[in-house]
Amino acid sequence: MSQTTLTQHATTSRRATLSALWAGLTLTVVATVHPFVDQATTRYLARHVGASYPGYGAEQVGTAVSAYLAILTVGGVLGAVTWLVVLWAARTGRTWAPWVATVAFVAAVCWAAAALTVTDTSGDVGLAPVLGWSQALPCAAGAVAVALLWRRR
Questions:
Q1: Total domains, the chain
Q2: pTM of the prediction?
């Protein structure tokens, strides 16, 4: 291959990697904001908690929803910060970027699996499934980003 072809391939690979990383950050922000939009509109999470615990009053359901919102916000902020660190590392050519991205990807898959499967004391899945699946969306971009980061190496 000529030097020009190699340079073009590297530039295309870099753009694809950065695009996957930006997509992951965007999906993480969407997954973090989604529960708040739900709370302001459809209240799917509140209905899910109320159905799981029929004896709960409005105040108890509100407390449970607030706890979920806090947990999902902390996870979302940690995820967004991680995306930004990996973006910076990939843009500046840090050799450790694929390693950090891989560890973050494994952690994100565990987080999403927990959001989808962990049951609470009622025996029902704790987090409303639609919100659990939104937690899994950034993992798709993460898988692509990790693959591209390792390929660039």
A1: 1
A2: 0.90
Q: Residue with structure tokens 């209905």?
A: 47
pLDDT category at 7 given cuts 50, 70, 90 is low
For the chain, the three-class secondary structure string (H helix, E strand, C coil) is CCHHHHHHHHHHHHHHHHHHHHHHHHHHHHHHHHHHHHHHCCCHHHHHHHHHCCCCCHHHHHHHHHHHHHHHHHHHHHHHHHHHHHHHHHHCCCCCHHHHHHHHHHHHHHHHHHHHHCECCCCCECCCHHHHHHHHHHHHHHHHHHHHHHHHC
- The parent domain of residue 141 ranges over 3-152
Q: Given this model, what pLDDT does residue 152 score?
A: 79
